[in-house]
Design goal:
The protein is an all-alpha fold and 238 residues long. The protein is built from eleven helices and no strands. It has one domain. The chain is 69% helix and 0% strand.
Length: 238
């Protein structure tokens, strides 16, 4: 069954202790895509054409720069810069200049190009379809697998971004009582676990007060990286 290709990583993610299982799944996709980008593929002409055209978002460029392949990074960066320079030189010759006292808005193809470039990323594009399939699989399992519903309910909640995505997708993927139950449980799951981590951060702060120095740390020692997962989807490296 085709769904099995996606149900395994979804089930596995929701059984971990990550503060957002969706972040955990996406992080694996990102790591695989980054390793692919900096693997032998960067020498392939068709892949290089795509990285030159799309570039990388800030997050994924940072991940790529952390790979142990300085030469590969230099080659990818150099040819991408070649493409940007060539495109901007060409487009700048087409730019209109406002004339007269009352300067009106004019087209600026360079700005249009740069805005489009800032919103494109080779890694984002590569993982997009798989990530969407993971989201759809969450709802598929919710509809069809009672054990997954229990696993979902007992998970550690979601980050802000993926809470939003699941709430947006629920009406498209579910209907009737399934949708109502999912929305209600997801609200509860998100809030209860945000409060849990917030309380851990609060206790972390208290431990810097001399009045609490002899008190146990409870679950506060790693509260800050867990809070960053909740708020910004930052998954700590193992």
């Amino acid at each position: 069954m085709k769904e099995e290709l996606y149900t395994i990583p979804v089930n596995d993610a929701f059984q971990t202790e990550c503060e957002c299982p969706v972040c955990a799944m996406k992080h694996v996709l990102e790591k695989n895509a980054v390793e692919y980008t900096m693997g032998p593929s960067y020498m392939e002409d068709d892949i290089r054409m795509e990285t030159d055209r799309l570039g990388f978002c800030q997050r994924h460029m940072q991940m790529i720069s952390e790979q142990n392949n300085k030469l590969g990074l230099a080659l990818v960066v150099k040819t991408h810069m070649d493409k940007v320079i060539k495109d901007v030189e060409k487009l700048s010759r087409k730019r209109e200049h406002p004339k007269g006292m009352f300067k009106k808005s004019v087209s600026n193809p360079v700005l249009d190009y740069l805005n489009e470039l800032e919103s494109s990323c080779f890694v984002c594009r590569r993982i997009e379809n798989s990530f969407r399939r993971y989201i759809a699989t969450i709802f598929y399992l919710w509809r069809s697998d009672e054990s997954f519903r229990k696993t979902y309910e007992n998970s550690r909640g979601l980050c802000n971004e993926h809470y939003r995505i699941l709430m947006e997708e629920a009406p498209k993927q579910l209907s009737g009582s399934h949708m109502e139950e999912f929305l209600k449980m997801t609200d509860k799951l998100y809030l209860a676990n945000m409060e849990r981590v917030r309380d851990d951060v609060e206790w972390f702060i208290n431990k810097f007060d001399y009045r609490y120095q002899d008190e146990p740390w409870k679950n506060a020692k790693d509260s800050l990286p867990r809070a960053l997962t909740k708020l910004n989807g930052i998954v700590p490296e193992e």
